[in-house]
Structure formats: structure tokens, C-alpha cells
Amino acid sequence: MRRTAETDEIRLLGVAARGHHGVLEHERRDGQDFVVDVVLQVDLAPAGRTDELRRTVNYAEVAAEVVEVVTGPAHDLIETVAADIADRVLARPLVEQVEVTVHKPQAPVGVPFGDVQVAVRRTKDVPVVIALGANLAGTGGTDPDRTVRDAARRLHRVSGLRGVRVSRLFVTAPVGGEAVVGQPDYVNAVAVARTRLAPGTLLAQLHRVEAEHGRTREVRWGARTLDLDLVQYGDPLAGADVTSTDPELLLPHPRAHERAFVLRPWLDVDPEAALRVGDGVARVRDLIPSTADQPVRLLDEEVGG
Ligand SMILES: Nc1ncnc2c1ncn2[C@@H]1O[C@H](COP(=O)(O)OP(=O)(O)OP(=O)(O)O)[C@@H](O)[C@H]1O
Ligand SMILES: Nc1nc2c(c(=O)[nH]1)N=C(CO)CN2
Question: pTM (2 decimals)?
Fold first, then answer.
């Protein structure tokens, strides 16, 4: 079945408020009525499944945001009003695309007219970091390094991901204390990309790729044919990353900052990489020294190229 988020929508129509936007002096002075429609693309399947408000976008909050912009500082153009609203609504993690229409029915047009509207559409485009790992043979006995390479290639075909770049492959000792004793070494890599998908939708796509490679979810920290973790969603240096304490999707990944098997490949693909750690933001290159006790080596070094 086609992913539903591409078709699911919340439509908030006819939000009315008085504002002072306009080029003419009397518009600035007297104000007039503005009417705004907001159409949000949001994957509504999780909310439909659980009946939980936190799994969708609260349209009352969006309406309040619209009124705040319309009644807020005056702009010359309704284009600016529409773009402001669109940017604010799109910053909500679950919103993948937004279309905002601003109507100005009392605009000084000079001739009889029905309505004037501007409509802007904005699509999410967020940097993301995905960690790949494998330490068991896949379906048909595929080696872990082959599985990681295949999965990395597969990421290029995930609808809603673009600009995928993948690190070289690293061989890493299993991390996780007692739980990983006796496990074979892992092959790890990190992919950086941009996405228009909401975090949960992207994670669902990653789970699908894991399943295609024969991943079954059993023991926590158990050996696995393929593990894809969403390490970070958004740019922490711009203060534009999503943080989440939902156990189904913790963001940033709570253990990434202490894992050489994530940090080393990440630095390999992005020397300027930065990660939110608690209240601060650290460069990945500065986090690596404290993981020096975790054995990590380039796979290519091992096979001589
Ligand atoms: N940032 C995240 N990326 C991937 N899965 C996450 C994330 N945050 C929470 N999870 C949840 O963790 C659950 C268990 O995932 P998984 O079995 O891959 O954990 P793990 O790989 O054994 O441990 P770790 O999370 O320490 O790497 C998943 O069902 C998923 O919903
Ligand atoms: N070296 C290494 N150790 C791990 C890894 C991994 O990918 N590489 N993944 C784990 C759980 O996701 C637990 N431990």
C-alpha cells in the first residue's frame, strides 16, 4: 500500500482575524479582516491507530499560531504573512508539507472584486543521520558487510530521503557489556541525508528496510542481521533539531555520543558533524577521544583497499 502520509491531510479553513498588513497608510492604521486556510500533510495513521492526540497535530494550536501572525507585527505583503505562517507550521515535527492561503477580502483593489488570495506551499527538508550496523549473516548467508552495503544503497531509494551520503565501512567490537559477550564483531556505517518525512515516518521506513534484510526484533542489544538507528533529526547547530523522549523514537539517539561505532563513521562522512548532548551541542570530532577504548577499524584497511 502507498504510504498514507502523502495523502493524509488536516485542513483548517477560514481562520479569521484582524490585522494591519498592507502597503497603504490606511491599511496600517485601521486594519482589516484576514482569512487563512492551512492544509497540513501529516501521516494520520498513528493517530488513527492509537486515538492519541500526541500522535497528530493539534489544529487548535495551529489556529492560535495563525491568529498570532495575523494580529502580530504588520507586513506590507500577504505573501510575507503566508510564508511566516507556513514556516512556523512546518517547524512542527509531524508536518511534512503545508499549504497556506491568506485571503484579504477587503483589499484596496480599486474595482469590485470577490476575494484576493495568495497561497504558498512549503515542504520539509531536514538533515538526518542514520547509523547502520550488522553482525549476523543475513538471509541466504549474506555477510554483514554486504548487508550494510546493500542497506546503504537501499537508502537511496527510500521515498522521502534525498542526498544520501554514506561513510566507509568500519569493523567494531560489540558494545553493550554483558548483553553482547560472545557476539561477533559488527560492521558499522553512517549515512547522512535530507528528508521531507516526519521522524516517525522515517523510522517506519528504516524498520521496513531492516525487515527486508531479514531483521527480526528479539533481544535488546542482541546480535542482528541489520540495525538502522535514527541518530539525529535536524541541525542542532541551528537549534533546529527535534528532541524526543518518546521511547519509540528517542531523539537524538541517547547513546550515540558515547559510541565509537557511530561517531567514527559519522566523522568519516561529515567532518563538521555536530550532535546534541544534553543541553549542549558537541562536534563529533571532540566526542571521539573519550571513546578511544572501543576498538574500531576501517574495513577497507583490513582487506587492503
Ligand atoms: N533514535 C532511534 N532510532 C531507532 N530506534 C529507536 C530510536 N529511539 C527509540 N527507538 C526504538 O528502539 C526500539 C528498539 O530498537 P533496537 O532493537 O534497534 O534497539 P537496539 O539497537 O538493540 O539498542 P540501541 O537503541 O541501544 O541501539 C525500536 O523499536 C525503536 O522504536
Ligand atoms: N560495535 C557495535 N556494538 C553494538 C552495536 C553496533 O552496531 N556496533 N549495536 C548495538 C545495538 O544496536 C549494540 N552494540
Answer: 0.90
